[in-house]
Design goal:
Blueprint (H helix, E strand, L loop, with lengths): L6 E9 L8 E7 L4 E8 L4 E18 L6 E16 L4 E8 L6 E10 L1
Parallel strand pairs: 1-3
Antiparallel strand pairs: 2-7, 3-6, 4-5, 4-6, 4-7
């Protein structure tokens, strides 16, 4: 039994402490077994906001990789969500969606690094 797995990894070097706190909009189609990950640099005490909607329920998380480990800060299974995460320390934080459903899924949203 075969399945299509697509891994899209984009890593931006956006700093939430910079004068520019631009939002990043995205729109993707996630195949069955596919995922989308967006990583952003966030300074300690600053927040990373998100708002998204999908046509299927997706595994969603915010994680980081301190000391080559995976630390999950937010984790749930949902078709839509809006929220924010405050960084406990400066570093790169990744927001990820994974399609574990039996159907491809549209995914649209916005990430907002903020002061």
């Amino acid at each position: 039994m075969g399945f299509q797995s697509v891994s899209i990894f984009l890593c931006l070097s956006l700093s939430a402490s910079a004068a520019m706190a631009d939002a990043f909009q995205f729109s993707r189609i996630l195949p069955v077994g596919g995922h989308y990950e967006q990583c952003l640099k966030v300074d300690a005490g600053h927040s990373l906001g998100w708002r998204f909607g999908a046509s299927q329920s997706l595994a969603f998380n915010v994680h980081s990789h301190p000391d080559d480990e995976i630390v999950y800060h937010v984790r749930n299974e949902t078709g839509s969500d809006e929220g924010s995460f405050q960084s406990p320390r400066s570093g790169v934080y990744c927001v990820m969606w994974e399609n574990n459903s039996q159907q491809p899924s549209d995914l649209e949203g916005i990430l907002t690094p903020a002061r």
